[in-house]
Structures are given as C-alpha cells and as structure tokens.
C-alpha cells in the first residue's frame, strides 16, 4: 500500500532452514520496528530439545502458537460455534483475546492496535455473518496500511451445499476476493490439510516482514480445526532487515530538480517514521511544509515553516501560500494525494510539478495525471537521509510564510449553552493535547473536520484519522485497540451518529481499557445535514432522536458526564483524563455552527452533485477545493 509504512523493509531472501517441530520452532522473523519477545529463555529462542517427544497438537493450537511466534499480542473478535476450537486455542495461548460486541468493531480495533504498537494483530470470526460483518473493518485496515490477520471458520467439506447452520462455502459466499487474494486481502487461503501449515507460516512471515500493509485471511473449516498435527515441521525463517532505497541516479535527479528553485514539502502518513529527518530537511533548505490530515504532527504545527493541513478540514493558508509564494516544485513524501488530501485542486500543482516518493510504485502520478511528476520508489526515511547528505544548504529566507489562522474565541457569559464546537476543541487542545500524552482519534464526519482544522500537534503519532474508507464506527471502536496496545489513554472525538452505530463501551468496561469518548451530540448526522444545506438540496432527513450517552455509558458500567454548558467542559475533560476506567463525555453542541468542511461540498459539486440553485453565502473557512 502507498503512504502507509516507512519503517525497515526486511529482505525476502531467506537462509536455508532447518525443519523444527511445530511447538518448538525458533522465533526469528523480525524487523526494525520490534523484536519478538514471546520467549521461554533469555536467548530469545524457544528451546528445541530433540530428545523430548513433541506433544500432539490440533490445527487450532498450532495456528495460535504460530501467530504468537509471529509477534501477535492481541486477538479481537466475536465467538461462534463454528470456530469454537480456534477461539479456545487463542484463549489458551500467550495471545490476549478480547471478545467484542461486533466483528467490524473488532477489525477497527485490530487495525488501531497495529498503528499504536507496530505489531500485527488478529481478528477472529465465526462463519457466515461473522465474516461478512468484519469486512468493512478489514477493508479499512487494507486502506490504512495495517498488518492484520483474519481467522475465520467455514463449513467443513462434507457439509457444504447441505444448508448447514451459517453455511460458509462457495454455495453461499463468493470465493473470489474473500477466500482468495485480491483487493481486500493480500493473502488468503482455506486450510484443508495439516500439510499446508509450513507454507502458510512462511507466507505470513514474509508478508508481515514486507513494507506497507498486509491483511491476510485464514479460513479454517470447523472439522479441520481439531485435526491432529503429527510430524509436521515449520521452517526457521531468517529474514534479514533492509530498507527499500532509491537508486543513486534517482537521488541525483532529485537533487537536480529540487536545487533548481524553491520547493515545498508535502508530508503524508507514510512519512511518520521520518519526522526528525523531515524537520532537518526543511530547516536546511528553508522549504515550506504542509501535511495531509493523517500526517498532522509529523512536522510540528508550531514550526515557523509549517503552512497548514491540506484537504478535508484543512487550512486556507496552504492555498494562500501556493497562490502568493508558489514553489517551483513540491516534494511529496508518503501520500497518495487523493481527494481527502488534495481535493485534486489545480492550485496545488506547482509550475515544475512533483518529486513524488512512495514505497508503492503505482502511486506517483495518479492523483494528478496531467502534472509533471518524477516518481521515486523508496522508504521515506532512507530517502530523506540521502537528500540531507546531497542537498546544499539554502540561504535563510526573509520571506514570511502564511500560517493557519487561529481565530480568537469570543467569551461571553451569555453564550454558555449549547456548546460551540470551537470552544470544545480549544478545551481538548489545552487539557488533552497539551496536558497529556494521549492519542487523539477523530471519527469521520464533522468530528473529523473540527478536529483536523482546530487541533494542533507538535509530535508524530498522536493523531489518527481514516481518510481512505472513512467508515462510521472506525474510531468509536478503534480507540480500544489504540489504548490497549499503547497501555495508556486514547481519546476518540466522535459524533452521536457513529456512537449509536457501533460503539464498544461494554467491551472497554469488561477489559478495563482506559478509552475516552468525547461525543459531539447534536441530534443529527450533521455533516450530511449541513452539506445538503450548502449544496442547496432540500427534503432529506438527517436528524436523530436526542440521546443521553452519559446515561447509556453508566448503564454499561463506564464513568460518564454530560456537558451542556461551555463553562463545564474543562472540568469534564480533566475528570476523564484522571479516570482509570472507560469514560464518556456527552457534549451537547450547537448544531448550527458550520463545520470547516466546505471543500468536501465543493468537491461533490465538481463531481456532478447538482444543487437546486439556492445560493449559499456562508463563508468557507477550510481548505477550498474548486
């Protein structure tokens, strides 16, 4: 996947291997992001005692042990009869198993656990609806570039086509794309024989070691799960670590192009492991820096060379810079430049075009096919390190760059109810962003645009949004995976619609996960409501009956507080941060405050969504589109 990983890229070349008994094989798959630590001695290797008889294992036990040895710490899912043996094997392994209330939420949590820890995670489901319920979350995992393995049950061969309970076979589900590799799964297979396990282990190990995301699916028939493993050995995989680096010719051409005149740096999520190098490059060259919504904080938003966030919820200061102080070229680092990042605005295309770096060679030139683009396939960190060695220092510029405008919020004792979203964001900035080390995650919709536009981060990996799939429910459930994997606070800024759709408060209570939900409660799907109004379209109903989320949360065993006045916000946030249990803050916000999402509505209009001719005169405050 593009823009989704910039860590080390382990070599796919393996050394000759020994065959080791399944329950005693050596843990040797690693990369620079972590070392596997599921060990039974101080050497980092599970001991192999050839004089001992290897215990007999079931396929389910072998798979659980195999995943633990691949570095999996957590498995998220919903149980069922068809996968009872797999569920039991996972529960009795060193992997921590979390039983969720919905499979999509489990998949979202697994994805965010990966981003918080750098370690692969597992999703488990039963047959039939268990699999199909998980697909949206797995679709998001693939789009975000996570490393996630789905374990699902399917109907055993003798029962296929006979209307088994929740039958899962080619009689009931399409095989292509679900049980085979394709656009959803990088690797997918149905395990019909114990003899397949060594090959499957190798495929998973190599897939997890490669750069970018890796989403796999192992479908295990119910009858096969209990088959005994005898005389089956798995390979010892010694996979050397390496980085995908650009050629000397590509570096030389980059230096030539970027030295020809002033250039800007456009930072994407794929550059998240290169924050220090990008700062050094900017300061060495004087380049202006902008970032995608997912890349907030990789380059400090407080830095004098930061001109703003692009795309959905972004800043008009970026367009001011591109129009008034246009660079000759833009160095793009780890972003697809898709609609959520650029809205394909022609203003973002500099005269000399792009130098576009990504680990996926299919990315450069796609978003802006008519623009000049010099493509480079490389790990971002390695590429920028080379540039730092080759590019000359630029004379310090005396030109003042534009910066995102931070409008002063009027404080009026007569304006206290309902809560203005911008007042809420200012309090989150003070108490959560600046006053804690919590990860902040924003749900799609107006929660996304308010958070992206108004919150400011000076560190990488503290802000998470999904821009590819943008599924409702991603953050309200993914926050559990983030908090669990980092063993600390994670805060979800979400809408009432998403909170009603698929939250996992009950799961957080069960496992004592210190997640925090801040609910923007306006009794509407308000991005839809406001968007229809801006587009001049009438008649569609986007309202929701008013809901007391604090009451619901307390009924589930969490702590919660309802906020209806601006004067109570900071105290509620401080209470939540101090709490050691799941916490919900239900904030009644002003539904009529226009969110900074005008560019999305302009982009829809440009794509053919027709208005009824009613002119909207509201001033747009975000990154414009067309």
Topology (elements, then pairings):
Blueprint: E1 19-21, E2 57-58, H1 59-69, E3 74-77, H2 84-91, E4 96-99, H3 103-117, E5 121-125, H4 129-144, E6 147-154, E7 187-190, H5 197-209, E8 214-221, H6 222-225, E9 228-229, E10 233-235, H7 248-258, E11 263-267, H8 275-285, E12 288-291, E13 306-309, H9 316-324, E14 329-333, H10 339-342, E15 354-358, E16 373-377, H11 380-390, H12 421-433, E17 439-442, H13 446-454, E18 463-464, H14 474-486, E19 490-495, H15 496-502, H16 505-511, E20 515-521, H17 526-535, H18 549-556, E21 559-563, H19 569-578, E22 583-588, H20 598-606
Parallel strand pairs: 3-4, 3-5, 5-6, 6-8, 7-8, 11-12, 11-14, 12-13, 14-15, 15-16, 17-18, 17-19, 19-20, 20-22, 21-22
Antiparallel strand pairs: 1-10, 2-9
Provide the descriptors you would attach to this structure in a database record:
16% strand, 22 strands, 6-stranded parallel sheet, single chain, alpha/beta, 3 domains, 20 helices, 626 residues, thiamine pyrophosphate binding, disordered N terminus, Rossmann fold
């Amino acid at each position: 996947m593009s823009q989704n990983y910039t860590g080390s890229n382990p070599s796919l070349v393996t050394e000759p291997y020994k065959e080791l008994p399944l329950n005693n094989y050596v843990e040797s798959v690693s990369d620079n992001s972590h070392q596997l630590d599921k060990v039974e001695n101080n050497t980092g290797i599970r001991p192999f005692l050839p004089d001992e008889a290897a215990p007999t294992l079931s396929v389910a036990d072998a798979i659980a042990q195999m995943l633990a040895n691949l570095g999996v710490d957590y498995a998220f899912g919903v149980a069922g009869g068809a996968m009872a043996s797999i569920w039991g094997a996972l529960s009795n392994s060193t992997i921590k198993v979390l039983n969720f209330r919905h499979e999509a939420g489990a998949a979202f949590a697994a994805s965010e656990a990966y981003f918080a820890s750098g370690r692969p995670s597992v999703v488990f489901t039963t047959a039939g609806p268990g699999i199909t319920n998980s697909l949206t979350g797995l679709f998001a995992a693939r789009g975000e570039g996570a490393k996630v393995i789905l374990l699902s049950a399917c109907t055993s061969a003798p029962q296929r086509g006979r209307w088994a309970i929740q039958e899962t076979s080619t009689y009931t589900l399409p095989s292509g794309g679900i049980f085979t590799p394709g656009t959803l799964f990088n690797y997918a297979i149905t395990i019909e024989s114990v003899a397949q396990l060594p090959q499957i282990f190798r495929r998973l190990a190599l897939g997890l070691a490669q750069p970018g995301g890796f989403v796999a699916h192992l479908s295990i028939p119910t009858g096969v799960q209990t088959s005994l493993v005898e005389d089956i050995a798995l390979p010892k995989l010694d996979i050397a670590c390496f980085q995908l680096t650009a050629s000397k010719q590509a570096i030389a051409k980059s230096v030539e192009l970027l030295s020809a005149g002033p250039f800007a740096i456009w930072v994407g999520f794929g550059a998240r492991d290169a924050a220090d190098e990008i700062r050094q490059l900017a300061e060495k060259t004087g380049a202006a820096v902008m970032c995608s919504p997912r890349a907030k904080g990789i380059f400090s938003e407080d830095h004098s060379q930061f001109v703003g966030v692009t795309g959905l919820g972004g800043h008009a200061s970026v367009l001011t810079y591109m129009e008034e102080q246009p660079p000759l070229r833009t160095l793009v680092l780890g972003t697809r430049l898709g609609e959520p990042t650029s809205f394909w605005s022609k203003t973002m295309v500099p005269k000399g075009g792009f130098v576009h770096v990504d680990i996926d060679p299919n990315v450069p030139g796609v978003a802006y096919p008519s623009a000049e683009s010099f493509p480079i396939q490389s790990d971002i960190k390695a590429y920028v390190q080379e540039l730092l060695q080759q590019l000359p220092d630029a004379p310090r510029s005396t030109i003042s760059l534009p910066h995102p405008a931070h409008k002063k919020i009027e404080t009026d004792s007569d304006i206290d109810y309902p809560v203005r979203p911008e007042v809420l964001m200012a309090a989150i900035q003070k108490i959560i962003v600046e006053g804690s080390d919590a990860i902040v995650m924003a749900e799609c919709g107006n929660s996304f645009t308010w958070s992206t536009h108004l919150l400011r981060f000076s560190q990488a990996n503290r802000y998470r949004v999904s821009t590819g799939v943008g599924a409702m429910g991603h953050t309200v459930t993914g926050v559990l995976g983030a908090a669990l994997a980092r063993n600390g606070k994670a805060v979800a800024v979400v809408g009432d619609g998403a909170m009603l759709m698929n939250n996992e408060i009950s799961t957080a209570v069960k496992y004592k996960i210190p997640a925090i939900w801040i609910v923007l409660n306006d009794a509407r799907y308000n991005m839809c409501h406001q968007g229809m109004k801006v587009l001049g379209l009438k008649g569609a109903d986007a309202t929701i009956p008013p809901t007391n989320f604090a009451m619901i949360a307390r009924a589930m065993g969490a702590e919660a507080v309802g906020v209806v006045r601006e004067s109570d916000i900071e105290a509620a946030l401080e209470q939540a941060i101090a709490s050691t249990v799941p916490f919900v803050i239900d904030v009644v916000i002003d539904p009529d405050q226009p969110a900074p999402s005008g560019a999305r509505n302009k982009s829809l209009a440009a794509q053919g969504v027709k208005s009824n001719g009613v002119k909207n005169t509201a001033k747009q405050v975000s990154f414009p589109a067309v």
